[in-house]
Amino acid sequence: MTHAFATAVKGAVAGFAAVAMLTPLAASTASAATTTGSNQQSFIQYDVAESPAADGGKGLTSLLTDFNTYWTPNKGATDAGVATLQHDDELTESINNAAFGADGKTAQDQRALSDAQMNSTNTLYDALGPTIGGYFKSDMEAGKLPKTAAFLEAMDKSVSTGDAKGTYAHPRPYVDRANYKGEKIDLKGLKSTLDIKKVPGYENFDWGDGEAPDNEYEGLAESGSFPSGHTTFAFTQGVGLSAILPELGPQIMTRVSEAGNNRIVLGVHYPLDILGGHIAGQYGVATAVSGNDKAKADAAAARTELVNYLTAQCKADGHGDTLEACIANTGASSDKGYTNGFTDDVVKTAVTDRKSAIDAYTARMTYGFQQTGKAGQAAVVPDAAVSMLDNVAAFKNLTADQKKAVLAATEGDSGYPLDASSEGWARINLAKAYSAKVTLDKSGKVVKVEPGQTAPSVVTVNTGDNGNNNGGNNGGSDNNGNNNGGQTDNNQQGNNGQNGHNGQNGQNAGTNNAGNNGANGQQGSNGSNGNAGTNNGKTNNGTNAAKTGKLSRTGTAIAGIVVAVAVIAVAGAAMVIRRRRA
After folding, report:
1. Would 389 be classed as within a structural domain?
2. How many CB atoms lie within 10 A of CB 522?
3. Over the chain, what is the mean pLDDT?
4. Of 258, 396, 252, 407, nearest in space to 333 by CA
5. Which among 55, 208, 360, 450 is least buried, having the fewest CB atoms inside 10 angstroms?
6. For the chain, what is the domain count?
């Protein structure tokens, strides 16, 4: 593809591509996105063409309507939104300025430039640690993982930000926001233009595609900032990879949250934009995978291919005969895996191990915003999110409701910006869910979830015997009787294929219980179900809701999403699409 061709396509009106769209089963029809307009509108069309969704992206736009609480398109800040937008602005300046250093050539700036190229292999590989990440990178670049590559490419097409960008029409941090695209904008005292330090490498940006460098600040100046397209891309890749490689899911999710944060480092996005992309990526991948048998089969095939390749290389290099053994041997899930020394006003501690990675990810789920809605509301778990736990070996025998309880117990609190309209997607914390030890009672109820483990596991305990409350985490009910749950279990079976990590047998997840009532150091627990409690030996029959007391509104089922492959009619257009999505 020549640079002249690329330039011509960038300026062309929309409609140049015929796209096989994702469609609801009820309609079972394909549609192509068609839009016309200026270069800025064609930018939006390229985004839609790259990432078709069932409705051209309107579903995502609907999930993000809480943004209207803070911003009115083409008018400006709302009275209720000024404080939130001021925090948004201040964090943008703080993160950008701190990363810039003396000359905009810091290690963090260079990492941000690499992520900006939207090469998912380069972004994702170091989430797996130096050894396994090296295997992944070399195999992907050598074309040895075609099913994995195809699956991740399909996940990129699972959601579109184009409609949302056009709908919310929010200006970039470095432009004259008071006079945006010919409109007078009422900022209600907020700065007209933020103090953004432009990174030299983004003013002369090499996409790595053989074309002449671009000034991305100029190219993005009139395109909407919300939600972030680059962050959406990063999260489709991270959620996709963690779904098929959940053994390192916490590190993968933290790495793509870093990629989203790097858009702030470059000064082209705000934290709210990143939160919007976070929602978009999770929603897109989970909806695509959960709603289509072919997508599920493709995910399974990609996992088999990836695990087999990584395991073979690990074995050849003496790191163990299984992937789990290799992860343990190389320290990929501890302090020899993904690390990141960059800190800011949100992530104040360097990432040095799995726990600190999960902490960083969790901090970027809210970016320190004040809650603008009601805190402590009942858990909301989208139905489609359950599919993200399907490949966790330890969770194989869990039912959909049990997996929902795990997601509920690990989700973030309600009331933060964008939560109100997100139908639960803003709260889902996959980094915690992928690292959880899950405790079931004899009836199969999830009674305790403990994230941050080296490997996920499921154990079963007896609860309520002799009126004892085993565990002390009773979701708000009184702790009557003796507490027998002093330690975590050392002897239980229930890790389903995790090769005996943490002293577990590794088989029959959650079915065998080596001793009860804390006799073997188990952490007996009545869980965090606050509806009925478990006192005086009675089991809790309330609604299953680890953390909030109930699973109210477990999510809006995204009915019958069919994953289709986008057919781009113009040769080489995919590279142009990638260039213009931000």
Report:
1. no
2. 28
3. 79
4. 252
5. 208
6. 2
Looking at 242-256, 280-294, 354-368, 467-481, which range is the least confident one?
467-481
Confidence of residue 581 (pLDDT cuts 50, 70, 90): low
* 375 lies in some domain: no
- Domain-located, residue 69: yes
Q: Are residues 317 and 403 in the same domain?
A: no
Reported as a single tens digit per residue, the pLDDT across 199-223 is: 999 999 999 889 999 999 999 999 9
List C-alpha distances in Å: 372 to 82, 421, 422: 11, 12, 14
Nearest to 392 by CA among 244, 508, 494: 244
Question: Are 569 and 559 in a shared domain?
Answer: no
User: 3-state DSSP helix/strand/coil percent for the chain, to nearest 5?
Assistant: 40, 5, 55
Strands 457-460 vs 183-184: parallel, antiparallel or unpaired: unpaired
Q: What is the mean pLDDT of residues 423-434?
A: 98
Residue 575's pLDDT band, with cuts at 50, 70 and 90, is very low
Measured torsion, CA atoms of residues 503, 506, 507, 513, in degrees rounded to the nearest 10: 20
Q: Tell me: do 45 and 166 sit in the same domain.
A: yes
CATH of the domain at 246: 1.20.144.10
Query: What are the two backbone dihedrals, phi and then psi, of residue 146, each rounded to the nearest 5 degrees?
Result: -65, -35
Tell me whether residue 382 is in a domain. no
Let me know whether 557 and 571 are in one domain.
Answer: no
- One domain, residues 260 and 220: yes
**Are 421 and 366 in a shared domain?**
no
pLDDT at 311: 98
> Structural domain of residue 34, as residue ranges?
3-370+564-580
Closest to 134 measured CA to CA, from 285, 337, 407: 337
Tell whether 498 and 538 lie within a shared domain. Answer: yes
Q: End-to-end CA distance of the chain, in Å?
A: 21
> How many C-beta atoms lie closer than 10 Å to residue 555's C-beta?
20
Long-range contacts made by residues 8-11, C-beta under 8 angstroms, separation at least 24? 9/570, 9/573, 9/576, 10/39, 10/42, 10/43, 10/46, 10/576, 10/579, 10/580, 11/39, 11/42
Residues 338 and 407 in one domain: no
Please write the tens of the pLDDT for every residue from 371-413: 999 999 999 999 999 999 999 999 999 999 999 999 999 999 9
Give the total residue count for the chain: 582
Directed axis angle between helix 293-316 and helix 271-290, to 10°? 100
Omega before 227 cis (within 30°)? Answer: yes
Residue 482, classed as helix, strand or coil, is coil
